[in-house]
Amino acid sequence: MTLKPLVQAALLLSAVAASAAMAAPQVEVLHYWTSGGEAKSIAELKKMMEAKGVAWKDFAVAGGAGENATTALKARVIAGSAPTAAQIKGPSIQEWGQEGVLANIDAAATEGKWESLLPSVVTKVMKYQGHYVAVPVNVHRVNWLWVNPAVLAKAGAKAPTNFDEFFAAADKIKAAGMVAVAHGGQPWQDATVFESVVLGVGGAAFYDKALVKLDQAALTSPTMVKSFETLGKIKTYIDKDAAGRDWNLATAMVINGKAGMQFMGDWAKGEFTAAGKVPGKDFLCLPAPGTEKSYTFNIDSLAMFKVKSAEEQKAQLTLANAVMSPEFQEVFNLNKGSIPVRSGVSRAKFDSCAIRSMDDMAASSKAGTLEPSMAHGMAIDSAKAGAIQDVIAKFMNSSMTPQAAVQALAKAAKTK
Ligand code: GAL
């Protein structure tokens, strides 16, 4: 009689143990894809993993360009509970590799034949000490200008191709009582506009010297002064409520006709398409003024963290292979506004903006005008990028002169 509750408890325990053993393997993925278009995109990966019998634990940290995600990730890694994977890009992958916390996923790369599907500029970034530690997701183009053609028509303005035309259009939009430039006053958004301006004012070779090689002479040159002058002028077309505004809310202003134009990477297209808008009709994707022949790229990737069990490891490799699959590359990028990073994905379903991105990337690669985005962590290490971003934000939020800005920029570039 007295044994009965014990037996019941034991039965219960073994049932719990059995269900734990049978529980689906799981991956926990840290990302910051929380806007309308972004959330739709990452939901596709969750669906795909669940279809493969792997449970998805979402570790979403809101904040454009991962503003808050890195802090959250560091806290988890220090606490010894890193997620399975995290959206980490560019040179930062090497920084995390040096911490000794990333997992070797060569097995997935071999199985998926990544070497034959990815350009070597991409594989180099995904490896730490010769071994794959990250899987690339997509290619975003940063140097875009998003335009509402109905706003242009209402204002009697023309779609701009260079800065003279841009300011002419901005004047007309402003005079017609609408916001000319939709923007959110956050440091990474300021940096996004800044780098497109540098590219437009100075061209790809100057951009490379200044923002990739951090050449002191280029950073303090008259061309850089002119870039800040241009940025200062753009500032005068931004509405007074821009401080702290999220990028997708700025995009929404263009979508609903409150504003005419926005400098932003093509994750903005994800917002337009999620709102049912059609490129060429409801919105235009134009290369940022003066940047038609160049292309600043931003490659999203998931870096993999060391996991404990063989089962977790297996789920991690499944995740890596799912990301590189043509099915994922197609559906994710259709929603995200980016283009596939690997070869062998059909173009058939992609819209005119994506096709233009694909063609312009190939052309700029040939012409030597394909450049890594500084603002999106592709070009320089995070300490230098952070210091440079601070200077740009200070310029945007104060009466700092272009001359003072270039001096501060050159100093920031020396950050160790
Ligand atoms: C970029 C990132 C994109 C997009 C954007 C806004 O840095 O690469 O995937 O999420 O920030 O958050």
Automatic annotation (TrEMBL):
Protein's cellular compartments: Periplasm
Lineage: Bacteria, Pseudomonadati, Pseudomonadota, Betaproteobacteria, Burkholderiales
Cellular component, GO annotation: periplasmic space
Keywords assigned: Signal, Transport
Annotated protein name in UniProt: Probable sugar-binding periplasmic protein
Family: Belongs to the bacterial solute-binding protein 1 family.
Signal peptide: 1-23
Pfam families noted in UniProt: SBP_bac_1
SUPFAM superfamilies, A to Z: Periplasmic binding protein-like II
Stated role: Part of a binding-protein-dependent transport system for a sugar.
